[in-house]
Design goal:
The protein has 14 helices and 11 strands. With about 325 residues, it is of the alpha/beta class. The protein has 2 domains: about 80 residues, NAD(P)-binding Rossmann-like Domain (Rossmann fold); about 180 residues, Rossmann fold (3-Layer(aba) Sandwich). A 6-stranded parallel β-sheet has the order 7-6-8-9-10-11, sandwiched between helices. The protein has a 5-stranded parallel β-sheet with strand order 2-1-3-4-5.
Length: about 325
Amino acid sequence: MRVVIDSAIPYIAGVLDRYAEVTYLPAKEITPERVKDADALIIRTRTRCNATLLNRSTIKIIATATIGTDHIDLDFCREHGIIVCSAPGCNARGVLQWVAAVLCHITANDNRTPESYTLGVVGVGNVGSLVSTYARHWGFRVMECDPPRKEREGGEFYTIEEIAHNCDIITLHTPLDNTTHHLINRELIGSMRPNATIINASRGSVTDNRAVLESGHRYYFDVWEEEPNIARDILSNATLATPHIAGYSIQGKANASAMCIRAIASFFGFPLCSWYPTGITPTAPQLISWDELRTTLPSRYDIETESNHLKSHSEDFETLRNNYNYREEWF
């Protein structure tokens, strides 16, 4: 059997080679010709798995080292019997820590404490639930918006309109689908508080980037429409801008690679169903205080330098992302 693997996925080289013929390719080289006789794919968001790529292939399973699957045509895969596995929650703490760095930046710039803000968390899954838990612990007033969870569970969830009307900061952690595309649009932005701040570490098109820019609202983006070819004015006017790396932690990448390997191993019967990269220590979760966060952050993650680099080298978006120095999670 044959497996094609995106060569930018870390910690995974050599793991499957004892059990299959493995081809490692840059994302741009994962083409119909290269996958037509493959049995499995392990990919990232840069590989569009649709009829164009898969129609003439023998692919049986796709494992993506990402939380989302909006780069995969799930209907096509379902119709053709292709199993799709993702890595939900793999990098949740990495994204949490990126959001924590943003919240520290906002409060320092405003010379305010967390208690003076109402934070709207939109999408309360693996990432959003962590953001809510820690933000409450740090003193923020938190309002949560998650229509699917509201429908399933009831409980105290707010509409996106209520979030817009009442929140000083809105942080987005939703998947991208037909209900969340341009969830933050001109009409909703018009109902926001005048000084509201928008944070997006989910998918670029969850926000109408142009509408956000033209509104004058402060925004912190890790994800962008038209990546990697981001409009220069949208990038340069972000308060902080990063190259789609919010979840790029050592542990997050190790978790994603492990989930992909385990999915492939389970499907084909390889003895790797508990595999985890050697030399990586999983994070020991701890509920650190706001003071400890502010004290430890400077030595852990310099988000301002990272933002300045991207703004000065926007043409290198993909290079910066692919060669990112993964961060160590610390809480």
